[in-house]
TrEMBL record:
NCBIfam families found in the cross-reference section: HAD-SF-IA-v3
Gene3D superfamilies according to UniProt: HAD superfamily/HAD-like (3.40.50.1000), Putative phosphatase, domain 2 (1.10.150.240)
Record-linked CDD domains: HAD_sEH-N_like
Taxonomic source organism: Melittangium boletus DSM 14713
Pfam families: Hydrolase
Domain of life assignment: Bacteria
InterPro entries: HAD-like_sf, HAD-SF_hydro_IA, HAD_sf, PGP-like_dom2
This protein's name: Haloacid dehalogenase
Length: 201
């Protein structure tokens, strides 16, 4: 018989909120007079990772992104553009709400301070999570073992007692390597089936 699940550890992007990076690159690129492909090329790499590790604060992110794109946007305009690609995944929220009081709920996300600040008030369910493990606050990023271990520490359980859901296979594989029960998140309906299989229907 499977060990009961004591914690559900959830990714943020494309689980609780969709993020359309193609839209982000189109909008930022248009403002800078660049096509989306060029904007995406300029924004990939070290700066993005530095922001996710918490090495860049709000103004640092603005300067880094604007510098890469060759444009200087005031913070208010920049922040609106920087968060334009998010849509709350309304269908999954009742499933996540239904776990309250049954298991610990931990958020585990690679994100930066501006994205986190924009999403938190739009996802009030996060206020009732047991803990939020955000890469920009802990200095580690998935798939590094340290960030999963941080989530497990706050979950207060052994790896095999934690179910982890993420939309990226490499992050799920990293969780499985540590002994967690990793699942690839695809849709709210599929999530229902995964929870049933874990005894959390």
């Amino acid at each position: 018989m499977n060990t009961p699940i004591r914690a559900v550890i959830l990714d943020l992007g494309n689980v609780l909120a969709f993020h359309d990076n193609a839209l982000l690159f189109r909008r930022l690129g248009a403002r800078a007079g660049l096509d989306a492909e060029e904007a995406g090329r300029r924004l990939s790499g070290a700066g993005w990772t530095a922001a996710n590790r918490g090495l860049l604060g709000p103004e640092g992110i603005r300067r880094d992104v604007c510098g890469a794109l060759g444009v200087d946007l005031p913070m208010e305009e920049f922040n609106a553009l920087w968060n334009c690609h998010f849509t709350i995944h309304e269908a999954v929220l009742p499933r996540v709400e239904g776990l309250e009081g049954r298991v610990k709920r931990i958020l585990l996300s690679n994100t930066n301070v501006l994205h986190a600040a924009w999403l938190k008030p739009r996802l009030p369910v996060l206020e009732r999570f047991d803990h939020l493990v955000l890469s920009c606050e802990v200095g580690h990023v998935k798939p590094e073992p340290a960030i999963y271990e941080e989530a497990l520490r706050h979950a207060g359980c052994e790896p095999h007692q934690a179910a982890f859901f993420d939309d990226l296979p490499e992050y799920v594989a990293a969780a499985n390597t540590l002994g967690m029960r990793g699942h690839l998140f695809t849709t709210a309906n599929a999530f229902d089936g995964q929870l049933r299989a874990l005894g959390l229907e």
